[in-house]
Design brief:
The complex is a heterodimer of chains A (166) and B (64). Chain A has helices at residues 2-22, 34-58, 62-66, 70-89, 102-112, 116-124, 134-161. Chain A is mostly helical and 166 residues long. In chain A, α4 packs antiparallel against α7 (134-161) and α5 packs across α7. Chain B has 64 residues and is mainly alpha-helical. Chain B is flat, with a radius of gyration of 15 Å. The chains are: A mainly alpha (166), B mainly alpha (64). Chain A binds chain B through residues 71-72, 75-76, 79, 82-83, 86, 88-91, 120, 123-126, 134-135, 138, 141-142, 145, 149, 153, 156, 166, and chain B through 1-2, 4-11, 14-15, 17-18, 21-22, 24-25, 28-29, 32.
């Protein structure tokens, strides 16, 4: 996006040079103040970064894929997907909205962190959770970890889109 | 959706599986150089397992 700014400035500079060579008076151009242009670009940058973070949250790894960070995109997709698959296979508890206590609500927030995979996990777990065994308890942690990891990845994609991180 | 294979793992197997997956993710996401990634993943894996086993032994006297 800053490249566009540089290109437009270069094009403007080239036009003024051309008018100086021909001796014509340059047409009045209503240019925006450079600081305002920079501010508009920053707003566009922020909007793009937020959009990338949301997309990355909905589909794990897709935010990084949009930033052409292929290795990280594949890693996030596979890690979150594998954790959700294992968590549901172990019959972990997938929290539903409207929990009775704070733990249930926090669990729901963590599970929802997996984005679209939350609904995939609901479909994968037709017989429901079974936390009476260690498997189910570990499965609950696997699902929550997948969600938190995906939220961290979405935050990383946001920071990378704002060019604060590589 | 059907065809989900139920998994029956022991505590240690579950712990190890969790540690391996998260260590690999941490290594890939946290470092850029391939060798650094491998080192960081190995370090994370060792720490996950060692701390979990140490905490397990620390809690052992209170389990009975």
């Amino acid at each position: 996006m800053f490249d566009d700014l540089i290109e437009s400035r270069t094009a403007g500079g080239a036009a003024s040079n051309a008018s100086a060579e021909t001796g014509d008076t340059p047409a009045p151009v209503h240019e925006a103040h450079p600081q305002q242009v920079r501010c508009n670009h920053a707003v566009a940058y922020d909007f793009r970064a937020v959009a990338i973070a949301i997309v990355g949250w909905i589909l794990p790894g897709f935010g990084h894929a949009l930033l052409r960070m292929w290795g990280r995109a594949v890693t996030i997709f596979l890690t979150v997907g594998f954790l959700v698959y294992l968590g549901t296979g172990m019959r972990g508890n997938l929290f539903a909205p409207g929990g009775d206590d704070a733990f249930a609500r926090l669990g729901y927030a963590a599970d929802l962190g997996t984005g679209s995979f939350y609904y995939l996990a609901r479909g994968l777990e037709p017989s429901g959770a079974d936390v009476s065994h260690a498997d189910g308890d570990y499965g609950t942690r696997f699902l929550a970890t997948a969600g938190v990891l995906n939220l961290l990845a979405a935050l990383h994609a946001y920071e990378a889109a704002r060019r604060r991180k590589a | 959706m059907t065809g989900m294979v139920p998994l029956h793992l022991s505590h240690f197997q579950s712990l190890l599986l969790f540690a391996v997956i998260i260590s690999l993710a941490f290594g890939t996401l946290g470092r850029r150089d391939p060798l650094e990634r491998l080192k960081y993943a190995a370090w994370s894996l060792a720490m996950f397992v060692l701390v979990a086993v140490a905490l397990g032994w620390l809690m052992y006297p209170f389990s009975r």
